[in-house]
Amino acid sequence: MFRIPGPKGKDLCDSHLGINRRDFLRVGGAGMLGMTLNNILRAQSASTTSSFAGGPGWGKAKSVIMVYLQGGPSHLDLWDPKQRDSVPDNVRSEFNNISTKIPGIQFTDILPNLAKVNDKFTMIRSMSYTPDGLFNHTAAIYQIMTGYTTDKVSPSGQLEPPSPKDFPNFGSNITRLKPTDEPMLPFVMLPRPLQESNVVNKGGTAGFLGKSYNPYYLFPEGDDMKLDKMDGIKVDDLQLRPDVFSARLRRRANLREAINAQMPLIDKAVEEYNIDEFYSQALNLLVSGRARDAFDIGAESEKLRDRYGRNTFGQSCLLARRLVEAGTKVVEVVWPKVANSGDHSWDHHVGLSKRMKTQSGPMLDQGLSALFEDLDDRGLLDETLVVAIGEFGRSPEKGVSTSGNTNSSDGRDHWPYCYTSVIGGAGIKRGYVHGKSDKTGSAPTEDPVHPTEILATVYHAMGIDPATIVHNHLNQPRELVKAERVSALFA
Amino acid sequence: MYSINVDSPVYSVAYSPDGKTVAVGTSDGRIQFIDAMTGESRKTLIPVDVTDSATLAKAEIKRPDNPISLKKAKTQAGHNNLVDGQRLRSLSISPASIELTGPMTYNQILVTGELRSGDSIDLTREVEWSISRTVATVDKRGIIRPDSAGKATLTASFKGKKAVAKVSSTGFETTYHPDYLVDVNPILTRLGCNAGLCHGAKDGKGGFKLSLRGYDSVYDVRAFGDDHAARRVNFASPDDSLMLLKSTGAVPHEGGMVTEVGSDYYETIRKWISEGAVLNAESKKVSRIELLPQNPVIQTIGSSQQMRIIAHYPDGSKQDVTQESFIEIGNIEVAEADDFGLITTIRRGEAPILARYEGAYAATTVTVMGDRTGFVWKEPKSWNEIDQLVAAKWKRLMISPSDLTTDSEFIRRIHLDLIGLPPSPDTVIRFLADRRSTQEKRAEIIDSLIGSPDFVDHWSNKWADMLQVNSKFLGKEGSQLFRDWIRDQVEENKPYNEFVYSILTASGSNKENPPASYYKILRTPEELVENTTHLFLATRFNCNKCHDHPFEKWNVDNYYQTAAFFSQIGLERDKKNAEKENIGGSAVDNATPLYELISDITEGSVTNIVTGEIAEPTFPFSAIKHTVYPSSMGDKNSWEPSRREQLAAWITAEDNQFFAKSYANRIWGYLTGTGIIEPIDDIRAGNPPTNPELLNHLTDFFIDSGFNVRALISEICNSRTYQLSFRTNTFNEDDTINYSHGKARRLPAEVIFDAVYSVTGATPNIPGAKPGMRAAQLPDAKLDTKSGFLATLGRPTRESACECDRQNDVQLGAVMSLLSGPSIAEAVGDPRNAISKLVKTEPDDRELIDQLYLRVLNRKPSNKEIEVVQENWSLIEGDHNTLVDQLAEMERDWVYRKAALDAQRFQNISNAQFDVDEYMPEFKAKKAAANKARRNQIKITEKSLADFEWNSLPTNQTAALQSITADRLLTQWEPLVPEKAEATAKGIKLTINEDATILASGEIGKNVDYTLTIPIKDKRISGFMLEVLVDDLLPGFGPGLNESGNFVISEIKIDYRQDPEAEKETPLKLVDVAADYTEEEFNATYVINGNRDRNDKAWAVGGQERRPHWLRLKLDQPFVVDEKGLTLTITIECRYSDGDFSVGKFRLLTTGSEDPLNLGLPSNISAVLNKAPDLRIEDEVSMLEEWYKYQDPDYLAKRFDWVKAKKPLPIDEKMELLKMALGWAERPFLDDPVLVQLRSDVLHSVQQDGNRRLTAAQDLAWALINNSAFIFNY
Q1: What are phi and psi of B43, to 5 degrees?
Q2: Which of B:1031-1050 have CB within 8 Å of A?
Q3: Residue among A11, A248, A399 minimizing CB distance to B197
């Protein structure tokens, strides 16, 4: 099914047509009176979704945590292992298979902890897409983050740096369509930007929605692999200035209001800007210290901090939980290593066995399993959607080139045609495997899922119709994502 | 092989079981049996009865009950347009003579009632209809459709009044042949099939694509007729055409059911299919459409008005097309239209109505008057023609303007608008004290501001935005130069047409002639045509790049023909000013030279992507009154203008319908907050001016003044209209577009910043700019405060010329910056600012408040306001005392909590220490055992190595040396001793040994290039050899630098430089590569493939690590170096994915020998080998032995075992972790952050309490700045 939202005959380039803010000024009847911007946006999302709202899982998620495994982890060496004797030598994983909480489902021994909690989430073993041309990291990352691909791709699959014309990151769309009522940052990205080589943060911005919908970037300084990198969080901008402490700021705010009250005509002349509401939000955010406190991972017990793993990834997962708890709508945890770098990255063209076994594997296993467990223990998993996904999987055959990269006999190349993602929480089936890959993990044999369908599923879970129209910088109408949710994932 | 023609699209093919016959089913309903051997048609069969197309074509069209689905129409059955109190004078009917020319035609009738008040109302849906003969039927909406041929009289009656029209119905005697362009495409457009979100989308929908709104009928008819196995049209059985099955929902259609079987639309399409689904390219295209009634005025909110659209064709014929047209309302807060041209009003106001039909469009404006009870028109004063033109509209729309703004509001408004800074307190006081007439003293202020240095900065900044002065495109210096040039033009008040002409025709280096930067920033004809039309004509040429503009007259031809004027521009490096420096560049785009030379060239063209043909430069409309062009033309006869000059002349022509108008509109929009056309850079037929007379006046004024921008600004500011108050009255409070009152506008980012620093008297210090430089003076949009204040407040990024790039809205980020951001805080808190001084010099609190209001809001406070402030100030002491009490209490509490925490910490330490102690014995034992094992292993391997050296090596050597063939001794290889060896990766160091070998040490993980500098002279070189070698010092024994011993060499380059001063190196051509061993897929030939990419293929030796290897390179021709000598630069690149594979030890050798160049031995070795064994001296023998050792694989394996055994023991991970845990436990815990915060608060509070007046003054300044009265101009 596809749908044709919007009135007939209204389409491209007609900047003044389609659904815009003005339409919603009329929703309340006489205009802006009594309607805050938030109300309008809410009305906007409601009215564009009315006919397709509902269905399993609709609106179950209050927040989303995207654990983004940039680099592209090998599905065959993690969560879709094959039987050792049924695959050719150059396909076989170096790791042993272990059984998991779900009978008949095996992981490799890289994921002993996740194997103990996979009754809490769904594994999609049929992620699949065929890139247009030679896709490399950034182009694929951009697709997952925005739902769209760009025309401008270098021969090796790299993109231009971020531009104000980019499609928005899904988190920006969510925070625009489902604004938060809490005095809390709606969208946080941590602990480092999306990156391939020198293309930094492509797909990680609000693009044409405008900077106000950008995530709050929490990128502490220092090397990604420094174990205590996350202890170096600085949130000066959320901090009160020492000379304007909270008592003084409150007094100032009161003075501001008292002065305003003496100028009712000016207030009336600017009422459409909703200034007072923004001031009260900003004051709340600063004075309540909620955001500041959420970033204080030192407040967690040492034991729990250990459980998540004393490394950048583990502590980022823990922060994600704290943020969601404090009211953040979208947290994006980006794997703390440049997509195409060595060592702890997932881009295992060479040295896969050692690097996965001693570096990236244990970090992922510990951090992600702790996140699922901790969220569930706190009852947060039912309202928090957690997605762990990379831009692609890795080639079943080792030592062959699929992307123009060279690969050693202990290395696998990029493989978008079949890989695994993990999704859980917010009404997603527990302990379920969706889709199947073939004997060598080369192609899905059942229920292929495109990364954009994952995005559609995220929107759906947040109560947003994936076909909701947003207008780009040229005021052209664009669907949030041109894909359907995967209904079978919801219980 | 043979081919046969079966005349119709093939639906199915099958072989008979015996393989002799092929059966072919075709779209005409026939099955043909074809002999598989000969290809001859044996027989043809029609399996079911089908109507042949001739019969079909003759068949009468069914008269449908419900001609089209009116589900979406609001028939307004219950609504009365005639409301109580209105009295009807007469009725009229339009058209008075109704001509129905065929069974499928119709007319939308309009019945209008004239009221006694002189107003008119639409009564079409309320009248009773009667017709003298039943030749036609009228429906509820006043649509008349023919039933049979004949003439009749149609009467509409209402409340005793009547109106009559003649009806003539014809066209029933001839057969109806629907035409694709005239009849079918309008239906497809109407049903939404080819809309942008359906099949008209860039990639179509559901596998079916049509051109957007049917602009390419050839493509569309082919899509219907040929694609998808021609199933979309079925001539044999039209009802089974997918095109009809889908649109009626008979088979699943994702777009839903859009028409019904039997409807006019269905029948028209069906008939067209049955007649062969052809496209008649000759058929008439609509020439224009007419939208009726023009400029309707509707008195009552909620009333409706039916519109009527008539299409006119080139042959003079016309047709009512209301049902197939689209009507859109430009302001949907005022009125809405249903899908069939019925407009319903929602609230008072004006709204443009735009109708379109098949690429033609027409517009008019509807006015909704609403209740104006009590309105009395009083002619307002008029100061110039602007006021008269604005007032004429107020009168028409019954609007009462506001009063003139007060002097203190005016002085602030005019300063912010003209110079981007608030007035100083002195200026305000002087102005308020001026006793001259309002108009006179205001005119004087306007005059004094226009042209002042601040004015020049402010308006230069505006142009720097529009011209994208951005270091991203121009570099730092280039931006500054361009900005300076703009400033010069603004300062000199260069006539606007000359300004634009000089930009568009600028040539030469963008360093020496900065306006040429325009062409450095915008680099392609496409970018240039879109930006230029947008910036200087306020028209948008982006939609019509790929398809005719769906809503405007611009078509694809216009786009490319205009772009063609930009197709012959040369861009080359300005070598004088930028020999090597480049700027920009990304993974997708190449970097460009820092400075470039822009020139006109004679080659280059643009290709129309729709037609595939080269576009000839042609203007989209005519403009001939060039004012700039002739003067620069010199000798008219001999001078041939370049394409750019022609274009610039056309753009800046006086009679260019958009040039002067768009800028007049912009200036008006900047100064009043609302363009007469809004958005101010979007002139379109569908976006008509709200006051065309006013816009025309401003345009004429601007042209007559000689494109004098300052004169235009002065004319506008001196109008009474500009000076109206923002305070509204009952009869103008809902007006937003007629300038009946001032409008509150959020100040631009730079103006807020500059105003804050100006009113607080602090000095701005923007990183990268000179201290004191104001935001309006910054040359580059990249320069910003550390916290990004300007960007957050919506300053444009200068990446497009769109006015929308600047955001003057209010959102959370902006408010956070104002409320707690460092820029404002630093200005307010600066101890050297004017607030501090004021506090010191002004002892009276009320005076202090007075002064602060005057500084920040440019007015004096009322008594009440002073009281409010004083009340707040009196709270400081209480706040302070509360804090002090809180702190005392918390400190007491903390003593206890701290004790508990201390105990906990102690416990944690002792636990962790216990873990360490507990593990210690095991750790020590493990360590001792490991040490022992290590020593033992060293001993074993040492012995084994010595034994081997003693026993086996000599035998091996003898055998090996004997097997060295003579050819290996032919080529003489001499080691090359580098003067310098450098690695590009920081962590890697290269050491040159005496034997010319080079040893690398350090960390791997980064791609590295090794560069060797080698001086040579007096030599003939025919080839090079690279030895990669093992070494005890390498972590994996080599030849690679890593643990595995493997390496990857992706490229080898050899260049020479004749003269050390010469800046360019010349490459030597390497032609032939050979290696003693290569890993599979890692062929040695890849090292000279010229590809320097990280992902390029390379040479590696996996499988034979820890042994020496050789690579030989041959030159395409021998290279002879004379005694003067030269310098060789040899680059060895190890670029491989993760950078782990740098070479560890290597040596370069060279030869001058003739072909064949063998993988030979170093000359000192071959010299010895050339001697008979008994002639060799002792040194030679031992040299040979030493050399051979490192060739023997068994020896190397044993040696590696020994090297490995000697490695230091690995650290014990468990012990490390336990120690780390102990470290954590030992960390002193910090005081409760809340307490720490409180302590700091109290510390500051004490200070502030001690200087209460400064604290209070700062608080007030902050509160006034964080106030709508400050961040808006009103």
Answers
A1: -155, 165
A2: 1048
A3: A11
